[in-house]
Write a structure and sequence with these properties.
Pfam families: ABC_tran, BPD_transp_1, oligo_HPY, OppC_N. This is Dipeptide/oligopeptide/nickel ABC transporter permease/ATP-binding protein. The chain is of the alpha/beta class. It contains 27 helices and 14 strands. The chain is about 45% helix and about 10% strand. The strands form 3 sheets. An 8-stranded mixed beta sheet has the order 8-9-10-5-11-12-14-13, with helices on both faces. Strand 6 and strand 7 form a beta hairpin. Helix 3 packs across helix 14, helix 4 packs parallel to helix 8 and helix 4 packs across helix 11.
Length: about 700
Amino acid sequence: MAIATATVAEAENAETDTPTSRFAWMRAFRRPWTLTGVVIVAIFCLFAIIGPWVAPYDPSAVSKETLQPPSPEHWLGTTQTGQDVLSQMLYGTQISIIVGVGAAIIATLLSVLVGLAAGYLGGLSDELLSLLANVFLVIPALPLTVILAAYLPKSGSIGIILVISITGWAWGARVLRAQTLSLRKRDFVEAARATGERTSSIIFRDIFPNQIAVIAASFLGTVTGAILTQASLAFLGLTNVTEWSWGTILYWAQVSSAMLTGSWWWFVPAGLAIALLGTGLSLVNFGIDEFINPRLRQAGIGTKKAQRAQARAQRARVVRRPARARGERAPHRPYDPATSDVILRIQNLHVDYVGENSVTPAVNDVSLTLRRGEVLGIAGESGSGKSTLAYAITRLHKPPAQITGGGILYTNADGSTTDILRMSDSELREFRWDELSIVFQSAMHALNPVLTVGAQLDDVLRAHRPEMSSADRAARVIELLGLVGIQTDRVDAYPHELSGGMRQRAMIAVGLALDPEIIVMDEPTTALDVVIQRQIIEKIIELKDRLGFAVVFITHDLSLLIELSDTIAVMYAGRVVELADAGEFYRNPRHPYSQGLLASFPTLSGPKRELAGIPGSPPDLRKLPAGCAFAPRCPLAFDRCVQVVPPLVPLAGPAEWRQAEAACLLYEGDGSAPDRPTDAVAELPHADQMEDAR
């Protein structure tokens, strides 16, 4: 295995953005309406900062020029007491925006903390936090605001900010909780958990960035709502009316009957400012998605990214380290249980999905072994328990899934054995990705859409190798991309910028980041065309032979398993029904279910034939039939098949192969020949028929 290192200076140079990338965020404002909104908001913010210094008069100073319309001396006219309306507007802009932004910041922080925590943590935390939010949602906001403001008439802007924040955070929290509940089931969050990242890191680095658009929209909406609420409270006289704001101006105009006297210049500017600022914030909201979502950003900075990544790769000095001492084996070496170098042993594993009134056995009494450097293939129809088994091996299952029995024993390089099921959370964090990693299916969902591929590889290293410098991590990321055949100039690419095959290679690179002993691959070629599947399989074989790790490969496709695997386990209804060397399985499948699976593949040579297939559907795991679960679909079933659950029994076979096992009553006895009714013989595919089918 190779690891790349670089000097700190090189890493700093590598991570320096070009001017183009630094200002790439400005592309979000290329839309006219977004740019218009930014300009409007910027003008109001500027007036809020400099207003008190550029105001021509003291806003509270009275004069004899009462109720004067706009003139060169008073651009916005005067009030009933001769006060300058323009000066009041400039002073009032500062207070109104401070209240709006301040209340929005506090309310948004509360929404984020409560919404993300409740949605991700679940359980009692979710119930309590959701109850708190629901209480504030059912209380009418305006009456509550009026009541609270009435008790804080002398508190000024700070009191109004607190009142608006307390009454305005619950809705945002509810929305964020719903979004988090959806995101926490995504594969990239599961991958982050599998890498051992802390809960806080997952929430704020994986889930939070995917909700920035929602949070930003909520923030801007809260700013508008807070300004309107402050103006309403001031208009009702529930705030300090000696502190100038747009609402205060409207209050004095209403008290002085400005509408009745036709003094439109007194109340129109304040109302127009509120409407114009709200419009500007809404227009800015249109551009938020384009600013935040990598999918919506205009292409065109890819060349700069490529040049920067290529320079990074060239500056990194690659230093080779000796490969780990691992057991290399030639394909199909003789199997000897005493010297098989077992690295993972699954013993009588049971995984149930526990509901309120039912228990569904998804994995039922499964026992498997995995040797160092071996590929163990697991096949079966949907619902057979393959993925549940993978999640149990990696301890990534979540309620209602529960491991109710058995053990998963991992053998370290020094020969000591550890039960994965008995590991504490801290031990699991150290174990995952260091010794055992997982490659999820559907890489588009397993990769975080708002983080670059390089950043996600760096996350794994940062979580498990805190002693590594940023330079070493950057070099290691480059090396990993090279290992899986991705050009290093794609290090700054987002997942949507990669093809399906490249995304899957990136997931394999994540799995290889810490040089694990075992990689669990859960249908890594799903939804890929056959050409890309071939490339992925060849890359897995190449990396396995080069690095020496063991693989648990799960798929529906038996043709892939036969080519890739050393040993194949076929699962049906949560049980292993056949276990054999891949060569022996291909030459002579024993279980009727395995024969049906192989017979359903079309032949590429020889005479044409009708595909056999397997009649019927997999059983409902909640209501498994008595006896053999495959009996209702099996053409060779006889009376005892619906009465007795067949155990895995050893079968006679060539000495050069691993001893095969099958869970079928046809092989009762010594396993040398099927013990079956004579009328079933004609329906069993013979070896020559199976060969023709291939």
